[in-house]
């Protein structure tokens, strides 16, 4: 019985090994741990729904989807720097899209909800839900598309 559990456990994890192996070599970020009540108090209802309850923004060209200023995108919950603006690209999918994350700031979790097998991306510091990663990104760079909710991030403009 114990064996069976281990096999199931390993097979679930082997799917996301590609991503997690990349992660293990990267620098560790300091964990931000709050209770559910503390998150509820710290975030807007919309942020709480997306970041803590794994909600999804409606697809839109608003928010950060078509936003291409120079700067950095931080986690809206804990302020960890997640994405540089030079990783951002126009995907026409209705969500902000990046072809890479800042080293070690994003973790990858197998997500089998909604009848699909996807890889969820979460903030490495606070475990906040960011979105999902897909392999249909720009072929000339990483080939990956970090599909991120506008609500999960906040933009900080680069200083000149
Ligand atoms: Zn965070």
TrEMBL record:
GO MF term set: peptide-methionine (R)-S-oxide reductase activity
Origin: domain of life: Bacteria
GO BP terms: protein repair; response to oxidative stress
Protein name, as recorded: peptide-methionine (R)-S-oxide reductase
Domain MsrB: from-to ranges: 36-158
Organism from which the protein derives: Lutibacter agarilyticus
Top-level EC class: oxidoreductase
Signal peptide coordinates: none
Keyword Oxidoreductase included in the entry's annotation: yes
UniProt keywords, alphabetically: Oxidoreductase
InterPro entries: Met_Sox_Rdtase_MsrB, Met_Sox_Rdtase_MsrB_dom, Mss4-like_sf
NCBIfam families: peptide-methionine (R)-S-oxide reductase MsrB
Keyword Oxidoreductase: yes
Catalysed reaction equations from the record: L-methionyl-[protein] + [thioredoxin]-disulfide + H2O = L-methionyl-(R)-S-oxide-[protein] + [thioredoxin]-dithiol
Recorded GO CC terms: cytoplasm
Gene3D superfamilies: Peptide methionine sulfoxide reductase
UniProt EC number: 1.8.4.12
